[in-house]
Amino acid sequence: MVAMGARPLARSEVEVLVREVLRQRMAGRINPPPAREARVAAARGGQNAPNPLVVNVSARHVHVTPADLEALFGGGATLTKHRDLYQAGEFASEQLVTLVGPRQRIIPNVRILGPTRGYSQVELSYTDGVYLGIDLPLRVSGNHDGTPGITVLGPRGALTLDRGVIRAKRHVHMSQDDLSHFGVRDGDEMKLRIHGPCGVTFDGVVVRHHPRVILEVHIDTDEGNACDIESATNIELIK
Amino acid sequence: MVAMGARPLARSEVEVLVREVLRQRMAGRINPPPAREARVAAARGGQNAPNPLVVNVSARHVHVTPADLEALFGGGATLTKHRDLYQAGEFASEQLVTLVGPRQRIIPNVRILGPTRGYSQVELSYTDGVYLGIDLPLRVSGNHDGTPGITVLGPRGALTLDRGVIRAKRHVHMSQDDLSHFGVRDGDEMKLRIHGPCGVTFDGVVVRHHPRVILEVHIDTDEGNACDIESATNIELIK
User: Fold this and answer.
1) CA-CA distance, A199 to B201, in Å (whole number)?
2) pLDDT at residue A103 in the model
3) Nearest CA in chain B to A170
4) Which of A121, A144, B31, B113 would suit a FRET pair with A170, their CA atoms being 20 to 30 Å apart?
5) Which helix (H) or strand (E) holds B128?
6) What is the spatial distance between Cα A204 and Cα A202, in angstroms, rounded to a whole number?
């Protein structure tokens, strides 16, 4: 694991970073992986299920506190909606940031998901981690003990998070009706079976209960590409 | 699927391509995904198995005919060894090429694997395909019917392949002893179970028999990252 320093960057340090990034980019040495928007990948109703089974691929993204948003986008900044996500009230914002890894490699145009949260968090794939040189811990959202940090650049400022960079553990959001239907409890692990030409069964899909969510599985881009989720012929969530 | 033209590029067209690539690179719009060398990811002996079970992650790579090698590296060019691969006689060469996709996006530093073959072939992950804008067909090596092409740049010339760009279907190389041990035949499909924090079971692992190979599973970088193969605690190959 490679952790960044915890203190905020000085203006001179940001200038050095940006100059280095530009220099490397000019030299063709800055080659982050492609970004991809999350999208509804497949939806199938289970037997007598209260809700359709939807699997969404989460592209790399960032969550921010109101204070961190202001540090990046200036005083009084708020998140504005780019498009709605599947869960009511959740949205991809218009606000984009640049991530600077420990090897000074950057990934630009990383979207902030709204609304703001009580913690800032950066969710990356292992492909991103290899590129940036960060050994990503596998975590449920919000569990930041021992996680690495990263530098985030916004149009009005830079921010060094001292922790909160993770690969999100595969998970499924469930309402009480969904818990009852599948016979599981919050924190249980299930299997997600993707049938198709690149068939895969994912173990360890964590059940995350919230009274106001809709049934939705989240996997990341590595997982979505490994099983070619777009070509799936059927999908099952198995206890 | 986005196919490239079949005819060779004229010098003036190559110049236009390279100028465009350089222009985009200067503007910071050329951002291919990270390259990664294939590596032995895990090895476990099965029960009474004649050979250890080895899973290797294949990073994107190219195979070439002797004629295509000369088109890229000049008359009389040969492949020189960078390092040995797991199968005897196979090697990662020192020769690197640049791939130019249909959207003029490029992936530089793609390694040619040797020795030369009777066909040229480009093996990419879906992450690469998304980046380049190529809808990759899932194929066993050498099956090029209906596959897209791509432009390949070498230090001494450019080459437009009219086909041969694939995502390699997961496969396992087996000797006769391995076939007997697992009770399978060439062309059968097996399951590869990866135990660990990102546990995954891959369906459709094609058995490929050759009298002189060692038991070896090949998956690509998307698959290797989806299951975090480096963190695997056990691996099973199941009929």
Assistant:
1) 9
2) 82
3) B198
4) B31
5) helix B126-132
6) 7
CA distance B149 to B163: 4
Closest CA to B216 of B49, B56, B41: B56
Span between the terminal Cα atoms of chain A, in Å: 33
Residue A200 phi, psi (nearest 5): -145, 145
SS3 category, A61: strand
pLDDT in tens, A91-122: 999 999 999 998 878 899 999 999 999 999 99
Beta strand ranges found along A29-144 (DSSP E): 39-45, 52-58, 61-63, 81-84, 91-100, 106-114, 121-123, 138-139
Residues A107/A60, Cβ–Cβ less than 8 Å: yes
ipTM value of the model? 0.82
Contacts B204 to A, Cβ<8 Å = 197-199
Tens-place pLDDT, residues B90-102: 999 999 999 999 8
Q: Which of A21-30, B49-58, B74-83 has the highest mean pLDDT?
A: B74-83
The dihedral formed by the CA atoms of B145, B148, B151 and B152, expressed in degrees to the nearest 10:
-60
DSSP B6: S
Dihedral (CA of B159, A228, A114, A132) sign: negative
Whole-prediction pTM value? 0.84
Q: Among B156, B75, B60, B137, which Cα is nearest to B106's?
A: B60
Prior bond of B115 cis (ω within 30°): yes
Q: Check if B91 contacts A (Cβ < 8 Å).
A: no
Are the beta carbons of B127 and A127 separated by less than 8 Å? yes
For chain A, give the number of residues: 239
